[in-house]
Amino acid sequence: MRPSNRALDEMRSIEIETNVTRHAEGSCLIKVGDTHVLCTASVDERVPPFIKGSGLGWVTAEYGMLPRATHTRMRREAKNGQSGRTQEIQRLIGRSLRAGVDRVAMGERQITVDCDVIQADGGTRCASITGGWVALSLAVQKLMKAGDIKTNPLISPVSAVSCGIYAGQPVLDLDYPEDSEAGVDGNFVMTGDAGLIEIQMSAEGSIFSRTQMDQLLDLAIKGSAELTKAQLAAVGA
C-alpha cells in the first residue's frame, strides 16, 4: 500500500495554470500533487557567445527552491553559491528542453526558463521540466504571433516523471514519503511520442534487475502520456 493510497501505476493529480505572471513571455504554475512549481520563459534576442553568429537558438534554465518550500526553512542560494544539486537540476532542465527544439527554426535568440519551487513534495525536477515546456511553448506562441518566428521550432512536448521501487513494488510518480524510502529511484525525461531524452536511475540500498528497470520504464511511458495530455491542453494544442 502506498502512503497516498494510490495504485502502483497512478499519477498524482496534475494541474497547469497558464499566464500566471504579467511580464514573462510564457508562464505557468504546475501542480503535481503537493509539488508546486512556478515556471516562466523569458525571450532574449541575444545568444551566448559560444553560438553567436551560428544562426542557432538556445534554451537554458535556472532552478531554485523558495526558502519555505520544504518542511524547514532553507537559506536562499545566491547564484554564485548554488549547491551542486541545484546546478545539476538546472542543467538537466535546460538540456531536456533543448532536445525538443529545432534550434535552426528558433532563430538566433535565447529563451531562459526559470523554475521556482514554491512547495516541494517529491519530483521537483520532473515538475520543472514538464511545466518548463509549457512556459517555453507559450513564449514560442507569442513569438510566432508577432511574426518573429515563421515555423514552430518545438518538435515535441517534453515531460519528466519519477518512478521507483518502493516497498518492493515498482511505482509511478513518487511523492516525498516514497522518494525518501525508495530502494530504487529514477527520473525519466521523454518526448510526447515516448522517445527517451534522459534516464537518471540509482539504487538506494538495494540493486535492481533488468526486469524491474523495464517495469519502471513502462510506468514512465504511461505517466509521460498523461503529462503530455495535460501540457497540450494547457497550451491549447
Automatic annotation (TrEMBL):
| GO terms, molecular function | 3'-5'-RNA exonuclease activity; tRNA binding; tRNA nucleotidyltransferase activity
| Domain Exoribonuclease phosphorolytic, residue spans | 10-139, 157-223
What CDD domains has UniProt attached to this entry?
RNase_PH_bact
PROSITE patterns, sorted: RIBONUCLEASE_PH
Q: Which reaction does it catalyse?
A: tRNA(n+1) + phosphate = tRNA(n) + a ribonucleoside 5'-diphosphate
Report what the protein is called: Ribonuclease PH
User: In which domain of life is the source organism classified?
Assistant: Bacteria
What this protein is reported to do is described as: Phosphorolytic 3'-5' exoribonuclease that plays an important role in tRNA 3'-end maturation. Removes nucleotide residues following the 3'-CCA terminus of tRNAs; can also add nucleotides to the ends of RNA molecules by using nucleoside diphosphates as substrates, but this may not be physiologically important. Probably plays a role in initiation of 16S rRNA degradation (leading to ribosome degradation) during starvation.
Q: How does it assemble?
A: Homohexameric ring arranged as a trimer of dimers.
Q: Which family does it belong to?
A: Belongs to the RNase PH family.
Binding residues annotated for phosphate, in chain numbering: R85, G123, T124, R125
Q: Lineage of the source organism?
A: Bacteria, Pseudomonadati, Pseudomonadota, Alphaproteobacteria, Rhodobacterales
Keywords on this record?
Answer: Nucleotidyltransferase, RNA-binding, rRNA processing, Transferase, tRNA processing, tRNA-binding
The record's annotation in Pfam families points to: RNase_PH, RNase_PH_C
The primary gene name is rph
Q: Which GO terms describe its biological process?
A: rRNA 3'-end processing; rRNA catabolic process; tRNA processing
The protein's Enzyme Commission number: 2.7.7.56
Q: Which Gene3D superfamilies match?
A: GHMP Kinase, N-terminal domain
Q: Which InterPro entries match?
A: ExoRNase_PH_dom1, ExoRNase_PH_dom2, ExoRNase_PH_dom2_sf, PNPase/RNase_PH_dom_sf, Ribosomal_Su5_D2-typ_SF, RNase_PH, RNase_PH_bac-type, RNase_PH_CS
